[in-house]
Write a structure and sequence with these properties.
homodimer, alpha/beta, Dihydrodipicolinate Reductase, domain 2, 2 domains, Asp_semialdehyde_DH_beta (chains A, B)
């Protein structure tokens, strides 16, 4: 299969290349595209050097285009790529809310991917990491209300976000002025409850993505979900604290049993051994860690749990490659 | 008034000295006590040098003892200090759940302090920071269910916790091995959903403190509260994301109006100007910042809000001095 990656030199693009290698995706030809600034760079794929090309304004000769170059590029170019015969797996938010475009997590709604019309959307990272754990619980016990607070890594803002955390932390430690460019405020040793733009209803777009996208992926347009999305000074795995009310009787033990069997999930829930989900252990992992599974103390028949998942993998590159695998 | 500080060289002890100065507390004599390791150090109070003494195993000649030397010391010595005539304001958890001991936030239940029998307990930092914002909303609209996820600074583990974050972050940045001693896992660029010991019900003691203490301070023994307490790599202000269901009709505007008038609270809620609570802005402030006030999207008649408050001030030293002020 001829594969193209658009945005190949970004944080997600680099992971896409690695994930294609590690999952032994049947690539007959790989072409890498990026902005003029990054074109000309050499990247190694399966031991061979590949030169990064400038993203063309027209068709790309590929069977699958894995796009991770931002919403503007995808909005404009994905229709051109798909009308030239490629299936586009798009990592931006440009197409996620289009009723004609399936929004897919392979563990949840693979059948939607197969009904594509040329473009398949990859969900927001925070949504994907929560959904992969929430879905098996929803199927088993019927989730009615979901409240989630996030602990999101700087990788969500791309490679520049991670670099800003590292550089500005160094400045902080050495007593130099601490600046910010990628984030709205200095991120070292800080917490910023603001990711993406604020909406009329007081929620950020990042928070609304979790609402809109979970409903679409689950096929539950009325599901009651609320989110607080918070940027914290970590590098690349997102964590989330979830409270979920269910319609059918649930216990932590029953939930744990369901999650143990669920694809894409690793139950890490041995508090007595200090084992629970953490960015430190979730980074680089394909599965999303789920733990701290317990009865919520405020609501009847409700659970709390905590997830950590690699924002660049299940939250982006891994899920995109898994979608491409559905097309084989 | 003769004041003694026990644990005077710890993170909270140092803030106690500063807060006594800044609030012009009528101190006629100040004596400072600490463990033998710290005794002999010199500390400046109102421009005068004071020598730190070893905490005695018996009575302390003071009218008020501000104790911040850990639960073990307080459990054993607070009754001796109070029976010798001092009122003990204790910052540990040793006495908080004793029905004879008032647990006090001056903005909420000052009358309880006045009914003391020699010992007054200062609440857990996470509880205090949430409660000061929750109480006025509870009075106005009747809170029925509270779900909170915390973003807790390393200062909650004392000066050693903050030092470990700084030292190990430096190690991380310079490519050296990253260790941990104060925390259960390395804290730089990580998130640890584990503060204090795990209980039978799957919650940590830190999480249960928020439940137990909020109920006691509010005089609402049945209030439905659930908490996820999470340590993050910040230095000294705690943040918390709260979802609160109310029995009487509430709107974000009405809540904001109530909070604007509430003591101990600063409404920081102008998302359009990128203003919301953050550790960066809450550090060093007496008031707790409250913002991101909005209608919760999952529940009817419910609000979400975000708070940041200085763990060492309203979460510890400031509240203790405010309690002492009630005794004047």
């Amino acid at each position: 299969m001829r594969v193209a990656i658009v945005g190949a030199t970004g944080a997600v693009g680099k992971e896409l290349i690695k994930v294609l290698e590690e999952r032994d995706f049947p690539v007959s030809e790989l072409r890498l595209f990026a902005s003029p600034r990054s074109a000309g760079k050499t990247v190694t794929f399966r031991g061979e050097p590949l030169t990064v090309e400038v993203t063309p304004e027209g068709p790309i000769p590929a069977d699958v285009v894995l796009a991770s170059a931002g919403g503007g590029v995808s909005k404009k170019l994905a229709p051109l790529w798909s009308s030239a015969g490629a299936v586009v797996v798009d990592n931006s938010s440009a197409w996620r809310y289009d009723p004609e475009v399936p929004l897919v997590i392979p563990e949840i709604n693979p059948e939607s991917a197969r009904a594509h019309q040329g473009i398949i959307a990859n969900p927001n990272c925070t949504t994907a990491i929560l959904a992969v754990a929430l879905w098996p619980l929803h199927k088993a016990f019927g989730a009615t209300h979901v409240v989630v607070s996030t602990y999101q890594a700087t990788s969500g803002a791309g490679a520049e976000g991670m670099q800003e955390l590292l550089d500005e932390t160094r400045n902080h430690l050495e007593g130099r002025p601490v600046g910010h460019k990628v984030f709205q405020h200095p991120i070292p040793f800080n917490v910023i409850p603001h990711i993406d733009a604020f909406q009329e209803n007081g929620y950020t777009r990042e928070e609304m993505k979790v609402v809109w996208e979970t409903r679409k992926i689950f096929g539950e347009p009325e599901m009651k979900i609320s989110c607080t999305a918070v940027r914290i000074p970590t590098l690349r795995a997102h964590s989330e604290a979830a409270t979920v009310l269910f319609e059918r009787p649930v216990t932590p033990e029953a939930a744990r049993a369901v999650l143990e069997e669920a694809p894409g999930v690793e139950v890490v829930d041995e508090p007595e051994r200090n084992r629970y989900p953490m960015p430190l252990s979730a980074t680089g992992k394909w599965d999303v860690e789920v733990g701290r599974i317990r009865k919520n103390l405020a609501f009847g028949n409700a659970l709390d749990f905590f997830v950590s998942g690699d924002q660049l993998l299940k939250g982006a590159a891994l899920n995109a490659v898994q979608i491409a695998e559905l097309l084989l």
